[in-house]
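pasting for the record
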Amino acid sequence: MKPLLARILISVFLTVLSAFADALSTSESHLTDFVYGEAFDMVSGEKIYSEYHCRIDSNQYQDVHYVDSTGFPIAYKRLNYQTGLTTPSFVQKNILTNDEISAGLSGRKIDLRYSFPEDKSKVIFLSVKERDNSPLVIDSGFDAFIQRNWDQLLLGTDVHFLFPLVSRLRLIELRVKPSRCSYDTRSDACFSLEASNWLIRILADPIELGYNQEIKRLSRYRGLSNIEDKNRESNIVEIKYHYQNTPFEICLKDGPLLRGARNNEIDD
């Protein structure tokens, strides 16, 4: 893995998928149950952090809480799906570095913002020129995009989309294609996420995504984490996702963005 260039491909949370991976229901009519992810270092096998995805406000919004292995909060994200299931706006706060990134769609323009310590900030407005074969996808909207293209992917067809990299203040074209799972599984279909540009593909390893074929939900993520430590370094992680119908305790608390937390602290 080439960490710097790979980070460029998913610097927002792929989140995920880190990101991007704020899972949606298979019907796309509303956000799913509550989602729990466990991130393990792929070299040492050590558990690094957990993520809790909480649906709120009649499924229009979703909060994502990230905590380290001791339970200390390290990042927080709020998503707003009013602009579409594949194009949610979001704000993400990295508590360890005090960085904040956001993206929002208004008509044919996308507003990207990146703020970091010492009151430095960058803002850019980009015009979105979508093509039929390369629509815009923002952050966790990737999951709904996968579901909409599920049959096409299982037939072996590549799908392309535009994705905003907020920390780079630019759009990049990515592609997803079917791949063989690198881990033992009987239930998952795996996909490879990579840049459409052949030069970047040579320099950066793809991200592996495993989806449970029965429920069409993300079950495994393998690649560079979108959560950085205090030195702004990311680990190569394997994230295992679990689903439940009842909220986690952390979902009943306000996130740091709502309370204006600063100085790397969260009030109880």
